[in-house]
Specification:
- Helix content is 11%, strand content 39%.
- It is mainly β.
- The strands form 6 sheets. Strands 10, 11, 12, 14, 16, 17 and 19 form a 7-stranded mixed sheet that branches.
- The longest helix has 12 residues.
- Bound molecules: CU-O-CU linkage and copper (II) ion (2 copies).
- The site of one copper (II) ion (CU) has 6 residues, from loops.
- One copper (II) ion binds next to loops.
Length: 509
């Protein structure tokens, strides 16, 4: 199928959203929104194109996708690592303190812009939808990597079409390393594995279908998109023959809406070593992990006590509504009913081998003080609200440049933000994400008893940029606006919710 034909299919599948989304970009688009400056000397320069492609993902016909293709223009060759025959990626690898220039070339037929999720960058480099460039356009990013070591990621952020473009294949990991991480002596090289989990639905000719998002009726629009198959780096599963010693497994939930519970097939506990914003203070043992859209976790996995030849998998079990029912439909089907099912996926399969000995799990990983709220800290509440078949925040929806009085922040301040997920006719989890900062989760209040069991799977003790707010909950996070002034976003990372406007600006001045 040609790209044009595929695109028609895709647009049809996406319903009205792609069309209205494209029209709404026009006033903010320029051919080249930002040119490279002469005062900035990058250590690393990368070209990153978003383009249409076809890949053999399933047996039979190839699948038309969009994907990012990167190359290093200046700096170490391993700054860009492509994943063979996968739409996921490429993986970008940078170090804290490096100055990077990224030339984004938009070669898909929709306006687009790239956001570096979790990275703390100036507003001009944050990929705000007002900076979207049209098809054929280019955007130049220049920033210094300020974050600590961790597994960050990047994806498109045009208003109204983020879900469509991420679903089409545009997402990659942005891995940052630093001296503290190096001192922790974690597994490296082929023992450092990155896995992007995402759910997709394919039609009979192996083409992607995104119909539930806007075109799937009112319930589909309000709940999100739930694909029929869970993929790992765009493949049905990944295998690691002859695994021995220890692995560092980085996981990103790159799904538009779906939440996963992740566990080991042999039911041994998981050892988590990092959350969204990098290493935990020390490894923590978990019966399972719960990862909402955009959340990351890193695991330490070893097989020293498993017998050679045995097979052990990491399994992702879909939790469509975070285990919660969905209001009136919940009454009919019961809480926890999976209304849009996908089978659990053994997405990473290890065959235990002989060889490399056991690598000792470090007792301490990083310096991470317990989160403490300074006296006099400003508090804000953001209610997650339901309007007329539309989600909002404090009863507002996204307007390109709008900032309300309660969204103005003083530069340098530390605040507590409370996301309150109550009073909704349709109880749903919302994975809330804030640009421009990393935060600490302070407390969860009002978690319903039937959702309390899931808390064992959260990495709330770590550094975070996205937090799952369950129905009935109020979640408080601590954050400081000390890096850059400017206009930044906060939003629900269920991309169907985000695209319908469950997103707002805040301004630091
Ligand atoms: Cu990962 Cu504003 O997004
Ligand atoms: Cu972000
Ligand atoms: Cu939401």
């Amino acid at each position: 199928m040609t790209m044009d034909a595929r695109r028609r299919h895709f647009l049809k599948a996406a319903g009205a959203s792609a069309v209205t989304g494209a029209l709404s970009f026009a006033p903010w688009s320029n051919m080249t929104a930002l040119a490279a400056t002469t005062t900035f000397t990058p250590d690393v320069e990368i070209e990153l194109a978003a383009l249409p492609d076809e890949l053999q993902l399933l047996p039979g016909a190839p699948t038309a996708v969009w994907r990012y293709v990167g190359r290093v223009l200046k700096g170490p060759a391993d700054a860009v690592q492509s994943l063979p025959n996968s739409y996921a990626g490429p993986i970008l690898r940078l170090r804290t303190g490096q100055k990077v220039r990224i030339r984004f070339k938009n070669q898909i037929r929709q306006p687009s812009i790239v956001h570096w999720h979790g990275l703390i960058v100036p507003e001009q480099a944050d990929g705000h939808p007002r900076h979207a460039v049209p098809s054929g356009g280019e955007y130049v990013y220049e920033f210094e990597v300020r974050n600590r070591a961790g597994s960050y990621w990047f994806h498109p952020h045009p208003h109204g079409d983020t879900g469509t473009q991420v679903y089409g294949g545009l997402a990659g990991l942005f891995l940052v390393s630093d001296d503290e991480e190096r001192a922790a002596r974690l597994p490296e090289g082929e023992r450092d594995i990155s896995i992007v989990l995402a759910d997709r639905t394919f039609d009979r000719s192996n083409q992607l279908v995104y119909e539930s998002a806007m075109g799937g009726g009112m319930m589909g629009g309000m709940t999100g998109f739930f694909g029929e198959r869970i993929l790992a780096n765009g493949r049905p599963s990944l295998s690691f023959p002859s695994a021995a010693g220890a692995y560092r497994v980085r996981l990103l939930n790159g799904s538009n809406s779906r939440i996963y519970r992740i566990a080991r097939s042999d039911r041994k506990p998981l050892v988590a070593i990092a959350s969204d914003g990098g290493l935990l203070a020390a490894p923590v043992t978990k019966p399972f992990l719960v990862l909402g859209p955009a959340e990351r976790a890193e695991l330490w996995i070893d097989f020293y006590d498993a017998s050679s030849g045995s097979k052990i998998a990491l399994v992702a079990e879909p939790l469509d509504f975070g285990g919660a029912g969905m209001g009136m439909m919940g009454g009919m089907m019961g809480r926890g009913t999976r209304t849009q099912t996908a089978a659990p996926s053994s997405f990473a399969q290890f065959t235990v081998g002989h060889g490399a000995g056991r690598q000792k799990l470090p007792e301490r990983l990083a310096t991470l003080a317990p989160a403490q709220i300074p006296p006099g800290t400003q508090r804000r509440e953001f209610a997650l609200t339901q309007g007329h078949m539309r989600w909002g925040i404090n009863n507002r929806t996204f307007q390109m440049e709008e900032v309300a009085p309660d969204e103005r922040i003083r530069f340098g301040d530390t605040e507590v933000w409370e996301f309150s997920n109550r009073n909704s006719m349709m109880p749903m989890p919302h994975p809330m994400h804030i640009h421009g900062v990393q935060f600490r989760v302070i407390e969860r209040i009002g978690t319903p008893p039937d959702l309390q069991g899931m808390q064992a799977g959260y990495l709330d003790g770590g550094v975070k940029d996205t937090v799952l707010v369950q129905p009935g909950e109020r979640v408080r996070v601590l954050l400081s606006f000390k890096d850059y002034r400017g206009l930044f976003l906060y939003h629900c990372h269920n991309l169907v919710h985000e695209d319908m406007g469950m997103m707002r600006n805040y301004r630091v001045a």
